[in-house]
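Protocol step 4 of 5: obtain the predicted structure for the target chain.
Materials: sequence only (see below). No template structures provided, no constraints applied. The aim of this step is simply to have a reference model before the mutagenesis design in step 5. Sequence pasted as it appears in the construct record:
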Amino acid sequence: MTSIRILHLADLHIGMENYGQIDPATGLNGRVMDFLRRFSEAVDYALENEVDLVIFAGDAYKSRDPNSTHRREFARRIKRLADAGIPVVLLVGNHDLPAQERRASSIDIFRTLEVPNIIVAGQDHLYRITTRRGEAIQVATVPYPIRQRLLARDEYRDKTIAELDALVQELVSENIRALAAQVDPTLPAVITGHFSVSDAKLGSERTVMLGRDVVVLKSVLADPAWDYVALGHIHRHQELNRGQHPPIVYSGSLERIDFGEERETKGFVVADVSRGHTDWQLYPVAARRFVTIRADVRQEPDPLAAVLESIHQQNIADAIVRLIIQIRADQEGLVHDAQVRNALKDAYFVASVSKEVERSYRQRLGSDWSQDLTPAELLSLYLKRKDTPPERIEVLLQYADEILNAPE
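Step 4 output (structure tokens):
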């Protein structure tokens, strides 16, 4: 059987404006244009490389109520795909959901206008889709689970939060199993969902997440009924099934949101899917670079020169930059902000210039401070000095461990 080429992308978040400035050519925030340009890269690839089907796995916009300009720019790019005869599945993510259940989602306009080749997937459903080349494929859709809808029965009202979370997880799992039971085993089958999966490594989506999250067990998705699992919601690209069939893939977001994604490769996934076998690959896009410069000048006779040299050693052209200077208290007056800012003039945006003064840390940590302590031990000591509750310390140390031990 000839394979069907699918382009899988997600988490566009049009409307993100952090670290941006007005783009004079368009009048839009430059960071909004960054996200739109990345989307255009994916659309261009689809049109130039015989893609048969596009799956957008949720979160078209940052806001539940995007402005008209953001809607227009998203629609322009979707229309290019539809006009080329490429079916597009638009999955409803948590950022696409309306604040009130009966209101339309931010992408429902495509369904209302009955735009050819566009499927707006706002419910759990198994679609049989005819691709650009006339071949059939099955696509199951699982939009972001709405708790209120899943837990509408009176019997759920007196449950604890933990019990409700477990119920939501099981209800979503039951729905996915029901979709798998409907699959025609003679045709390739894909499932796309917008939720968190157990074992997935989280990214900066935590900073823009709306409401409590829903977690689905990986074992529910690792079902031979599916030939590819196309996920959205988590911004870090990853494959969760360790090379086994079916691939369980987060495409990741197309553009970096903040410094938490500084080292992450951003892009879209192209999967060649046939019944029982799938080859897939991440295609990187030209996402805006984030650059952190750390200048430790505590032992330098000329701290300003050392800071400037640290800046010149980095490629900061058109990047979003933050500068962190480690300095002694007696050196602060020697590092002039104007000269530092001038050295950073080639950056697209200077997010921050901060100074970590050695003396202030010693005073905060008290007599227990030691250069022999690990970063985790120092953080633990600092949190204890701030009277942070023990359970909160444990959670923060877990997140710190993920950051400190993240792969380069």
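Step 4 remarks: Residues 70 and 381 are 46 Å apart (CA to CA). Residues 161-181 form the longest helix (21 residues).
Proceed to step 5.
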